[in-house]
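ESCALATION

Customer reports they have been waiting on this structure for their group meeting. Please prioritize. Original submission:
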Amino acid sequence: MEVQTLEVSIREQLGKGAARRTRMAGNIPGVLYGTGKATSVTVSPRSVTSLLLQEGGQNRVLTLKGTGVEGRAAMIKDYQVDPLSRKLLHIDLLEIDLAKKIQVTVKLNFVGRPIGVADGGVMNIIERAIAVRCLPNQIPAHIDVDVAALKIADSIHLADITLPTGVERMPNVNPTLVTVVPPAKDEELAPSLAPSAEPEVITEKKAAEGEEGAAPAAGGKDEKAAAPAAKKEEKKK
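Update from on-call: job pushed to the front of the queue and completed.
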């Protein structure tokens, strides 16, 4: 990837108050880590944001410009973002030796449409980035993975792909990157689509209980209603 420059200023004042004043002035605080003592710095958030928005931006090799850091090579090690405003709050830079290999994480770019997908299968991406080793000036923006030949039940491992020149995979590591799985069978979907079982309704016992309880009540009402009628008949006679 292309080497870019980043203007950096040494930060003399430390602490939360100094960091707050740095942000109010339109910059963000940061730390430059290296082989020696860590150096507190300030940088422009716009410059850093522009880098991070580029493909492979965090893996860019940066040539630092500024008093005390002029010409040193570095990379973005980490950064902090406000969870609400999404504005940059802090950045960590790592000084690197351009003549020594380093470990970086590179995004995978899956190319093509698998044969298995055309046959009804589903492409399952397992790894979207991988860790590799290379010289700083040989870091790729991404690594292409051709999936066009994948049939159902086929998969691609890290050892199956050709890495760019100068890029090495980590030793004893060979993860599965992508696979094409068969489509789900109808019987596997049936349980989730079947209506839930209805609760059992017991009617005989309730009916029996109703009959037992209803007889006395009905009989009692008839007897009470019949008693006054009988008395009236006796008086008429």
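Sent to customer with the following note: The chain has two domains: 4-95, 102-184.
Escalation resolved.
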